[in-house]
Amino acid sequence: MKGRLVSPSWVLLHLVFLAAVVAAGWLGWWQWERAHDAGGSFQNLGYALQWPLFGGFALFLWYQVVRTLNGTESHEEAESVAESATSAGTDSSAPEEARPRRSPIPSPAPPVTEDEDPQLAEYNRYLAELNASRSE
Questions:
Q1: CA distance readout (Å), 79 to 49, 51, 65, 71, 109
Q2: Backbone angles phi, psi at 6, to 5 degrees
Q3: How far is Cα 134 from Cα 120, in angstroms, rounded to an integer?
Q4: Model pTM?
Protein backbone atom coordinates (compact mmCIF):
# COMPACT_ATOMS: atom_id res chain seq x y z
CA MET A 1 0.00 0.00 0.00
CA LYS A 2 2.77 2.44 0.87
CA GLY A 3 4.33 1.84 -2.53
CA ARG A 4 1.11 2.97 -4.18
CA LEU A 5 0.97 6.16 -2.07
CA VAL A 6 4.35 7.29 -3.40
CA SER A 7 3.64 6.55 -7.05
CA PRO A 8 3.86 9.61 -9.34
CA SER A 9 0.09 10.03 -9.67
CA TRP A 10 -0.40 9.84 -5.90
CA VAL A 11 2.47 12.26 -5.22
CA LEU A 12 0.76 14.69 -7.58
CA LEU A 13 -2.52 14.19 -5.73
CA HIS A 14 -0.79 14.80 -2.38
CA LEU A 15 0.72 17.99 -3.77
CA VAL A 16 -2.69 19.18 -5.00
CA PHE A 17 -4.16 18.66 -1.54
CA LEU A 18 -1.18 20.38 0.06
CA ALA A 19 -1.54 23.33 -2.33
CA ALA A 20 -5.24 23.57 -1.47
CA VAL A 21 -4.50 23.67 2.27
CA VAL A 22 -1.71 26.24 1.85
CA ALA A 23 -3.85 28.40 -0.46
CA ALA A 24 -6.78 28.28 1.96
CA GLY A 25 -4.48 29.28 4.83
CA TRP A 26 -2.97 32.11 2.85
CA LEU A 27 -6.39 33.38 1.71
CA GLY A 28 -7.67 33.23 5.29
CA TRP A 29 -4.70 35.26 6.51
CA TRP A 30 -5.15 37.77 3.68
CA GLN A 31 -8.83 38.24 4.52
CA TRP A 32 -7.94 38.58 8.21
CA GLU A 33 -5.51 41.38 7.38
CA ARG A 34 -8.10 43.02 5.09
CA ALA A 35 -10.68 42.90 7.89
CA HIS A 36 -8.34 44.90 10.12
CA ASP A 37 -7.46 47.50 7.48
CA ALA A 38 -9.26 50.83 7.29
CA GLY A 39 -11.54 49.62 4.48
CA GLY A 40 -12.18 46.19 6.03
CA SER A 41 -15.65 44.93 6.84
CA PHE A 42 -17.44 42.07 8.53
CA GLN A 43 -17.55 40.35 5.16
CA ASN A 44 -13.74 40.15 5.19
CA LEU A 45 -13.89 38.77 8.72
CA GLY A 46 -16.37 36.15 7.61
CA TYR A 47 -14.13 35.11 4.74
CA ALA A 48 -11.16 35.02 7.13
CA LEU A 49 -13.02 32.45 9.20
CA GLN A 50 -14.36 30.59 6.16
CA TRP A 51 -11.08 29.90 4.35
CA PRO A 52 -9.55 27.80 7.16
CA LEU A 53 -12.70 25.67 7.07
CA PHE A 54 -12.07 25.05 3.38
CA GLY A 55 -8.51 24.02 4.21
CA GLY A 56 -9.78 21.71 6.94
CA PHE A 57 -12.20 20.16 4.46
CA ALA A 58 -9.33 19.56 2.03
CA LEU A 59 -7.42 17.76 4.81
CA PHE A 60 -10.48 15.69 5.65
CA LEU A 61 -10.98 14.80 1.99
CA TRP A 62 -7.32 13.79 1.67
CA TYR A 63 -7.68 11.58 4.75
CA GLN A 64 -10.78 9.92 3.31
CA VAL A 65 -9.08 9.27 -0.04
CA VAL A 66 -6.07 7.64 1.64
CA ARG A 67 -8.35 5.66 3.96
CA THR A 68 -10.40 4.45 0.99
CA LEU A 69 -7.21 3.29 -0.68
CA ASN A 70 -6.34 1.31 2.44
CA GLY A 71 -9.83 -0.19 2.54
CA THR A 72 -9.66 -1.15 -1.13
CA GLU A 73 -6.41 -2.99 -0.64
CA SER A 74 -7.62 -4.79 2.48
CA HIS A 75 -10.79 -5.77 0.57
CA GLU A 76 -8.63 -7.15 -2.26
CA GLU A 77 -6.54 -9.09 0.28
CA ALA A 78 -9.72 -10.41 1.92
CA GLU A 79 -11.00 -11.62 -1.44
CA SER A 80 -7.74 -13.45 -2.13
CA VAL A 81 -7.91 -15.05 1.34
CA ALA A 82 -11.52 -16.09 0.69
CA GLU A 83 -10.59 -17.57 -2.70
CA SER A 84 -7.71 -19.55 -1.21
CA ALA A 85 -9.95 -20.72 1.64
CA THR A 86 -12.67 -21.89 -0.77
CA SER A 87 -10.17 -23.71 -2.93
CA ALA A 88 -8.80 -25.43 0.18
CA GLY A 89 -12.33 -26.28 1.33
CA THR A 90 -12.11 -24.32 4.58
CA ASP A 91 -14.55 -21.50 3.86
CA SER A 92 -16.11 -21.66 7.32
CA SER A 93 -12.74 -20.94 8.95
CA ALA A 94 -12.18 -17.82 6.86
CA PRO A 95 -12.23 -14.59 8.86
CA GLU A 96 -15.41 -12.52 8.93
CA GLU A 97 -14.05 -9.81 6.62
CA ALA A 98 -12.89 -12.43 4.08
CA ARG A 99 -16.38 -13.85 3.61
CA PRO A 100 -18.32 -12.55 0.62
CA ARG A 101 -20.89 -9.92 1.49
CA ARG A 102 -24.53 -10.18 0.64
CA SER A 103 -26.11 -7.74 -1.75
CA PRO A 104 -27.62 -4.64 -0.10
CA ILE A 105 -30.63 -5.00 -2.40
CA PRO A 106 -33.25 -7.21 -0.74
CA SER A 107 -34.78 -10.09 -2.59
CA PRO A 108 -38.27 -9.44 -3.98
CA ALA A 109 -41.23 -10.15 -1.75
CA PRO A 110 -43.43 -13.12 -2.58
CA PRO A 111 -46.45 -12.25 -4.71
CA VAL A 112 -49.68 -11.43 -2.90
CA THR A 113 -52.80 -13.33 -3.84
CA GLU A 114 -56.30 -11.87 -4.10
CA ASP A 115 -57.35 -13.78 -0.98
CA GLU A 116 -54.55 -12.39 1.20
CA ASP A 117 -54.90 -8.70 0.37
CA PRO A 118 -57.21 -7.67 -2.47
CA GLN A 119 -56.12 -4.00 -2.54
CA LEU A 120 -52.42 -4.85 -2.68
CA ALA A 121 -53.00 -7.47 -5.37
CA GLU A 122 -54.96 -4.93 -7.44
CA TYR A 123 -52.19 -2.35 -7.00
CA ASN A 124 -49.55 -4.89 -8.07
CA ARG A 125 -51.58 -5.70 -11.20
CA TYR A 126 -51.80 -1.97 -11.95
CA LEU A 127 -48.03 -1.60 -11.60
CA ALA A 128 -47.47 -4.62 -13.85
CA GLU A 129 -49.75 -3.07 -16.52
CA LEU A 130 -47.84 0.23 -16.29
CA ASN A 131 -44.54 -1.59 -16.64
CA ALA A 132 -45.81 -3.57 -19.62
CA SER A 133 -47.13 -0.45 -21.39
CA ARG A 134 -43.87 1.36 -20.73
CA SER A 135 -41.76 -1.35 -22.35
CA GLU A 136 -43.88 -1.45 -25.52
A1: 45, 42, 21, 12, 30
A2: -110, 15
A3: 21
A4: 0.50
Contact 94, 85 (CB under 8 A): yes
CB 101 within 8 A of CB 93: no
> What are the per-10-residue average pLDDT scores of the chain (136 residues)?
76 93 95 87 91 95 88 62 55 60 78 87 89 82
Instruction: Tell me the C-alpha distance between 3 and 11, whole Å.
Output: 11
Three-state SS across the chain?
A: CHHHHCCHHHHHHHHHHHHHHHHHHHHHHHHHHHHHCCCCCHHHHHHHHHHHHHHHHHHHHHHHHHHHHHHHHHHHHHHHHHHHHHHHCCHHHCCHHHCCCCCCCCCCCCCCCCCCCHHHHHHHHHHHHHHHHHHC
What is the Cα–Cα distance from 114 to 101, expressed in whole angstroms? 36
User: Cβ(13)–Cβ(61) under 8 Å?
Assistant: no
